[in-house]
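Entries read chain and fold; for instance:
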Amino acid sequence: MAITGMPQLGLHRRVLLLVAPIVACLAACNLVTPAPITSSTATPDLPRVQILSPAHNQQAIEGVIFDIDILASDAAAGIQRVELYVDEQLQQSSESESGPARDYRVTMNWYAGEPGWHKFAVFAYNADGVASHPHIIALEVIPSA
């Protein structure tokens, strides 16, 4: 069977004649190396925050008020505020009274009222208003005996 407009050629030669222009076009497309993407400004470091105590998965007895020890830091702009959320509701906020501080440690209290698991998340904000990633722990409140 002959391809219209082509003289009778061997199968390999016909495939080569059809595929060669496609391969040449594809090869030409890969001759240029794209320029690397550069950023004109460096990404600033975010503030850091952590819950020092209580530990993740710790149990608390219903009806007890306990302390949450929090440490936040930001070497560049300083920490201005720390927020504590329990079950995604803002419970407490603390601001540095002496202005932004490189390291800011605060103790917040929480009343263990409802039995079950509770999610604690803390955020730190630097003097520029930039928020940290949250530090999250879970605590289980168990009924009192």
